[in-house]
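Continuing the series of single-chain predictions for the mutant panel. This is the parent chain; the variants come on the following pages.
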Amino acid sequence: MPFFIASLSNTGQFVCVIDHKKYNCPLIEHVFTLNCLKRNGANGAMSKYNRKLDQAARAAWMYYVAGETQHDIADKLGVSRQVAQRLVALATEQGLVNVTISHPVADCMTLAEQLKGRFALSVCQVVPSDGVDNMAIQSMIAIAGAEVMAQTLRQTMPLIIAVGSGRTLQATIKELPEFDRPQHSCVSLIGAIANDGSCTRYDVPLRMAEKTQGRYFILPAPLYADSADDRALWCNHRIYRTVTEKAEQADVTFIGIGHIAMGCPLNVDGFITEQQVLTLKQHHVVGEMLGHFIGEDGERVSSDLDACLTSVAITPRTARNIIAFSGGEEKHRAIAAALQGRWINGLVTDEATARAVLAWSSSA
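Parent structure:
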């Protein structure tokens, strides 16, 4: 397809650029002139006002199409910068300027509004993903997610921010600027201790506390205890109860949504075995949040692992402000289930995921 753009030359003539070659375009100039004439009922020579409208159309063309500054427009039209500014405003007031956004972001905004309406979300951001590989999608989700997080973190009133774990959340917090908000408290929703006593690489709340200079409350337990009795020891500790109570009082909760499959993070990182993955799949589990397993219908699925789970409890259809950050083809079903079950009321995801979720929701 040849490259085409129309703009004004330094002499004020309309010029087309086709495949990097310039051509005079009296037709485009004539269209602009006719547009001005028709709007004012002119059949003969242009009146002073019509000439002003023509000049306004030229100024608007240079400003909106050619990307000229008001100073450049003033020089080319031989007027002051203030007059150039008024000409652009006049073109807008007279309806000579029509804005159409054909960028993929426009489709993403539409999808975000549809998701908000379908699943009663208070916050939703959708990033473009058409023709983009998964690594780039995750990067865009992280950048968009950081903007959503920043809207909360900028507040000056003291906040309790509950934070989950996972690669997407970690990448999102990495994109955050630093905030001088020592009054905020970051609370962990999931144990950061591995079974061998080491700390997990995905201690996300600590990263957020470092960004805000706020206090950090760690959940002193592994994600899965060795047994039900071992879980009782962890969960009955005074510090554990203090942290979980604080998490339940959170002003906002940031979590990820994981999928369940061979090679999923829970499996790769050694939290669940391949046999446990197979068992969960047999029970139609498609996703997890904080170690809580979700079926394809959006309902919580019980498993033998529940007796050892130490993460903070979450419930569907809650009044708590829970925003999830997740995307990519492998997570389509998991995100759809989280939305279907009303486990979250905010989401940052990608375009393909949004389309898949809306399609499944319509066919259900």
